[in-house]
From TrEMBL:
It catalyses: [protein]-peptidylproline (omega=180) = [protein]-peptidylproline (omega=0). This is Trigger factor. The keyword Cell division applies. It comes from Streptomyces pini. The gene is tig. Its main location: cytoplasm. It is an enzyme of class 5 (isomerase). The keyword Metal-binding does not apply. Consists of 3 domains; the N-terminus binds the ribosome, the middle domain has PPIase activity, while the C-terminus has intrinsic chaperone activity on its own.
Length: 473
């Protein structure tokens, strides 16, 4: 077999392949055997029809077609390996010549991973938010904990801000009550902003048994995004009572004996959270800087497939679960369809470029993923998915997703290499060390944040990876 590679553009090639006819003999034999099992010829036992009789009865062309279809995948894969290509997706194959007992020639056009030159990233500089925890931050954290331990008592008076009202709702559009617009026995804290716009004003001042009607734009359901007339009935009013902020509260709400110890722990937790957020911010900014330094062409078909995948997932999974269509979503986001499509394309391009450049960095730095790293990442992914590690691992294995997880960890390690080489300062002008300090949990979370930042577009990482796998089949 002879093959040649012609570069059509930085992300697409054409393979020209010539195969001597003798190399098709195994496929020809298989074709005769397959046809033998499918046909019946008088005078011959099933499966024992001679090749010459099959040629006479059904035509040599049918045999050749079956043989070529059988041989093409391996011939194509051999040419890919000979050309040291990294194809993306399925090839477009064209048989250019087929001479019986002489020659098979075909071309195959396919998208390929572009050749990427890793830029010098040692000079990357980024600025991130400083880690500052104020007394007000601690006060807010403790107050949130206090809110969780609030008790309620039914009162015989008009509802006011901060009260908990039990309500029934009925939403109508154009005078018709919506099938999914009726709800009963909802507990709502006035002023929380957790329900419809306008409800706070409607229920404030009402006593148990009182009713009001207001107009609001529905956030979900069959009429999401439309104006509805909402009737609200208050069935009870309860006052919320917060516990006193003292040592007794600390003992009730935590493992600490004093309020000061509880406040000190809250400050420590806030610092950890802000350090983690700071690390994530640094990783994202360094990634953006790295991408801007490198020339990474994106295959058009892969990009379009990625855009379609993202749009499909948004409309058919995320929005459908909220009972919302794309038009209602765009109205809520105050975006035109053109703005939405442009944003989608920009996100998809960034995701693909991210994967390409970090995969190249993985190869250049010879980064490997060990079992411990993969297990830690799997356990964190399981936690975020709401599944047990065993359930998540089983789903990953059954879905053939292990290579995808390995890729996420490897790309996270590649990004960590770049972040470590970058100069990171905070808004106060202080140098920020990206070394993991304190305990192992923080280290694992930071590593996982690298993997998440590196994946920047999980769908693109998955779709491009699947394309690689398909092209090998």
């Amino acid at each position: 077999m002879k093959s040649a590679v012609e570069t059509l553009n930085p992300t697409r090639v054409r393979l020209t392949v010539e195969v001597p006819f003798e190399e098709l003999k195994p496929s020809l034999d298989a074709a005769y055997k397959k046809i033998n099992q499918q046909v019946t010829v008088p005078g011959f036992r099933k499966g024992k029809v001679p090749a010459r009789v099959i040629d006479q009865r059904f035509g040599r062309g049918a045999v050749l077609e079956e043989a070529v279809n059988d041989a093409l995948p391996k011939l194509y894969q051999d040419a890919v390996e000979e050309g040291e290509l990294s194809p993306l997706g399925q090839p477009e194959v064209d048989i250019t010549e087929l001479k019986d007992n002489e020659l098979l020639a075909f071309t195959a056009e396919v998208d390929v991973r572009p050749s990427i030159e890793i830029p010098d990233y040692s000079g990357i500089e980024v600025t991130v938010d400083a880690v500052e925890v104020t007394d007000e931050d601690v006060d807010k954290s403790v107050e949130q904990l206090r809110e969780r331990f609030a008790s309620t008592t039914v009162v015989e008076r008009a509802a006011a801000e901060g009260d908990v009202v039990k309500i029934d709702l009925e939403a109508s559009v154009d005078g018709e009550v919506l099938e999914d617009g009726v709800a009963e026995g909802i507990d709502y804290t006035i002023g929380s902003g957790e329900l419809l716009d306008g409800i706070d004003e409607a229920v404030t001042g009402l006593e148990a048994g009182g009713s009001a009607t207001f107009t609001s734009e529905l956030k979900g359901g069959s009429a999401a995004g439309r104006e509805a007339e909402v009737k609200v009935d208050v069935t009870s009013v309860s006052a919320r009572e917060l516990p006193e902020l003292d040592d007794d509260f600390a003992q009730m709400a935590s493992e600490f004996d004093t309020l000061e110890e509880l406040r000190a722990d809250s400050r420590k937790r806030l610092e950890r959270t802000k350090k983690y957020d700071q690390a994530t911010q640094a990783q994202e900014k360094v990634l953006d800087a790295l991408i801007s330094l490198a020339e990474v062409p994106v295959p058009e078909k892969l990009l379009q497939d990625e855009i379609n995948t993202r749009k499909h997932n948004l409309v058919n999974h995320q929005l459908s679960q909220l009972g919302m269509d794309l038009a209602a979503y765009l109205k809520m986001q105050e975006k035109s369809e053109e703005e939405f499509e442009n944003e989608l394309k920009e996100q998809a391009e960034k995701g693909i470029r991210t994967q390409f450049i970090l995969d190249e960095l993985v190869n250049k730095e010879k980064l490997n993923v060990n079992q411990e790293e993969l297990t830690e990442h799997l356990m964190r992914r399981a936690q975020s998915s709401g599944m047990s590690p065993d359930q998540f691992a089983q789903a990953v294995v059954e879905g053939g997703q292990v290579p995808m997880l390995v890729g996420e960890v490897a790309r996270g390690k590649a990004l960590a290499v770049v972040v470590e080489a970058a100069k990171v300062t905070d808004t106060n002008g202080e140098a920020v060390s990206m070394e993991d300090e304190e305990d192992g949990e923080e280290s694992g979370e930071a590593a996982d944040a690298s993997a998440e930042s590196a994946a920047a577009a999980d769908a693109s990482a998955e779709s491009a990876g699947q394309s690689d796998e398909k092209s090998e089949g």
